[in-house]
Structure formats: structure tokens, C-alpha cells
Amino acid sequence: MKQDIFGASSMGYVVIESIQLERWQALLQNGIGLHLEQVDGPLLAFRMDHHQRRIIVKHGPAEDFAAVGWQLKDQDTLNIVLQRLKTRGIAVHEGSAGEAAERGVVRFWRVMGPKRMAIELFIEPLTTDEPLSMLSEGFITGDAGMGHLAITSRRGKDMRRFWQEIFDARQSDTIVEQLAGVTVDIEFFRVNPRHHSIAIAQVRGLALDPIRTKAQHMNLLTTSVGGLTDAFMRCRQLGFEMAHEIGEHPNDREQSFYVLTPSGFELELGWNALEVDEASWQIATYQGISLWGHKPQKLGTWNKLKTNLSNFGQGLRSLRRAEYSPLQEQP
To answer: Distance between the two ends of the chain, CA-based, in angstroms?
Structure first.
């Protein structure tokens, strides 16, 4: 009998590689309002709760996500996940003690996930009772984790399989969006009561990926509408471009904005996202990513054309390379 680990995993941390550490510090500490835990030469570490580290930015050329840490409830859950990976022939390697300390965890195990995103499994975070010193009123974390990732894919079926087969992810709903003359299907998956920890976007009928980075955006949830609007104003005053100004999504009813990070992907800060009631939830399909708002900061024909041409060019380049999946293809 298959053991179901739904509710026993959550997004625990992210590691980002960038050469623009000063701008990242300005965005996360002075814009979003996180607690700066460590500035140590080529590394920044940020807190948002009692975990010693939630976001780590390391000096490096990728301008991309280097890893996402996935917290598992206990040793039994870890054993189940490791066995599922082994059964599928997916290699797992334990991280070094130095890497674990860098991430703020006792131990972790690394697997190469879809799109070559390193997924790092851990049970026990290093924690601290030291008070937070941050501009934000607070962030929603706890058992539901620190946020979510939205990922674009040319192999949406295989990516869905990975999160469903390894983590027992459940589909929450789907949004159909029209962008730059193409249809994009966005599927939302939850692994705990948070409406979604993973969103997977795929261009309908075209096997292309218009996004350079491993994830299109990451999300954090603040505890109040004041925390949302204050961070929005701070980011604007610091000169960070809003990819999408404040608006509301139709599925999880989260109000949020998307700020363009120094590495080129987006960071979404939201509040008031609903949690799923497993007893009554029904999967639905929505037309359009926003009920209102979420307009780009830069309007006008030229900026729209420049963005669309850039994405189109990236999409064409994606056709030249295979998208990695750790799972064997199924017919």
C-alpha cells in the first residue's frame, strides 16, 4: 500500500547565485523587509522567522536559483522520499557539513530535479530565538513553508509527475492566460494546506520555454495588507522595477506585487492567500491570471514589444536544448 506524505513537506529555503550582492541586499533587506542574518564576503543570509536562514544569496555568475530546500516532517517521511527516488533511479547525494551550515540546516540530501533545479531535502533546520530586526511586520511560514515557486516548462507532464510521484502533490486548480499571442496553461499544486507550493506553466501547443531562469518567480507571504503596500513603496523608492504592480489572483485570492530581482527573475510578495479545505475543495479552471491589477510598471508599445521579442528569442533558443527531467519519459 502506497504511503501518502501529503502535508509532510514544505518549501524551506532557497539558494540564489548572483554577482549583484549589494542590490540583492537592498531588495531583500530594505525593500521586502527581511532580517539580514549574515554578510560574509561572498554570501548573504536572510531570516524571516525562527529559522536561521531562509534566503541565501551566494556570489556567482549564474544569476539564477542554485537550489531550493524542501523540508520534510520527520525521518519516516525522508525515508519514503529517498526510497521513491531510488526506485526511479534518481541519484541522491548528501551535502557536506559546510554546505549544511551555509543553508542553516543540520543535514541535507541533494537530488537534481526538473530543469536541473537542485532540490535539497532536510528535516531539521537550525533555529534561533534572537529577535528579528526587519522592516516587515512579519511573514507567514510555519508548517506550510516559506512560499512557492512558479516554473515554466517544455515538459509539463514530466514535471507534474515528479512533484506528484515524489511528494504526493495535489492539483489545486488551473489558470489559462493569453500572453503575447499564445495560450499559457498554469497548473497549481499543493503539498500541504498552502494553496500551492509549485506552479507549472506551459505554452499550449508549443514546446518552448520563454524564461531563462530555472523558476519564473518565487513567492513570500506577508502578514498584513500594510506589510504588502509598505514593501511595494519601499521597492519602488529603491529603484526596483515592478514587473506587475499590486493586483489579485482569481484562484487563491492572494493580493500581491511582482518585483524584478537583480538576477532577472521575479519575486512575488503577497498577503491573504487562502488555504485549502481538503474536505470541500474542487478543482476549477480560471481565465486570466488576475482579477484586477498586476499591470506592468513600464507601459507602452515599445516596452511591450521589447519584452515580447526577448521572450520569443529565449523561447526559440530553448528549442535547441533538451529540458532535463529526472524521470524516464512515458508515452
So the answer is: 25
